[in-house]
Amino acid sequence: MRYQFEFRPYQRRFVTSVTTSHGIWDIREGIILRLTSETGQASWGEIAPISWFGSETLKQANYFCHELPKEITDETIFSIPEDLPSCQFGFESAMWGMRSEVLTPNSIPLSYSALLPSGEAALEECRLLWKQGYRTFKWKIGVEPISRELEIFALLTQKLPVEAKLRLDANGGLSYEEANTWLWLCDKVNASQELPVEIEFIEQPLPVGQFQQMLELCGNYTTAIALDESVATLNQLENCFKQGWQQIFVIKPGIVGSPSRLRQFCLENEIDAVFSSVLETAIGRQNALQLAAELSLHNRAVGFGVNHWFDDDEETWLQNLWNDH
Questions:
Q1: Which of 13, 22, 35, 271 is most buried, taking the most CB atoms under 10 A from its CB?
Q2: Confidence of residue 100 (pLDDT cuts 50, 70, 90)
Q3: How confident is the model at residue 253 (pLDDT cuts 50, 70, 90)?
Q4: Neighbouring C-beta atoms of residue 193, cutoff 10 Å
Q5: Choosing from 59, 131, 138, 140, which is the catalytic residue?
Q6: Catalytic residue selected from 59, 138, 159, 252
Q7: Is 252 a catalytic residue?
């Protein structure tokens, strides 16, 4: 098929800065794209890179879009190189959006995990988000000194109501010794009869280059470990699977690469996957959640509880973004 191609860069400020072990993030930048078929049907996609996580840079994505002709084809889209995984996701999602038979979501409705602010601010926020219906929460660690984070963690495990699940996300920011400390403590919390919360897993405790050490940690503790930065792209995902990773894979559709290739890999291997947001707009989120609905085989909450990080009217904002150009 042939499509008319248009795109718009965007900037969107967070309500408060997103703080991880990688640093402080204030503004979400990306690209909204539109494909229009020869019959006039339009479909939308989003390119939302996170270069420090493993995708291309926004500059590279912008350059790629500027270099494309105004008319492109399916062949153009399927020939996007692997070093532009966010572009692969954005264009291919828009292309598949033209076709009614794209996905058949499974019958299990998705539940959502809410992203808490780092540090002490999580203590109040978790209560507010619980009232909004969230039952699974993710808290960033490896941001402050471990002694302080352990103090906050103790308070957090006491504040969360019964049946809450907590995920700890280190973004690869722990040392091997710190990872052992956290996992030992998580095992202790999960074994406790007094604390109401369950620690579902620790996400990416060690840097990407320490895969073997993370395999060792899996054998030493009962608390599960999830890979995140280590499986940012499809090639990394396939490589870690081949090397024997049998626990959880956190998949960010917005930066992982080709949706069709991801679908094939997940269906062939039936991995334990948690699908997660890259703080994209509703366009990228809808496309990512379609994949999550089809490919989530273990009924884990998806990591898309992030709307509270923005305070704009998203629908109006997207309309203005397109109409103002």
A1: 35
A2: low
A3: very high
A4: 4
A5: 140
A6: 252
A7: yes
- The tokens for 319 are 């309309």
CA distance 193 to 189: 8
Binding-site residues for Mg(2+), please? 169, 203, 228
Query: Which H or E run includes 292?
Result: helix 282-295
The binding site consists of: 169, 203, 228
Q: How far is 178 from 153, CA to CA, in rounded Å?
A: 14
131 has catalytic annotation: no
**236 neighbors 54 (Cβ within 8 angstroms):** yes
pLDDT band at 108 (very low <50, low <70, confident <90, very high): low
Nearest-5° Cα angle at 287, 281 to 289: 95
Tokens 């599960």 belong to: 224
pLDDT surpassing 50 at residue 103: no
Q: Each residue of 4-60: pLDDT tens digit?
A: 999 999 999 999 888 887 788 999 999 999 999 999 999 999 999 999 888 999 999
Q: In sequence order, what are the beta bridge partners of 225? A: 202
Radius of gyration of the CA atoms of the chain, in A: 20
Nearest Cα to Cα of residue 258 among 233, 279, 239: 233
Instruction: Give the predicted TM-score (pTM) of the model.
Output: 0.92
| Alpha-carbon gap, residue 50 to 255, rounded angstroms | 7
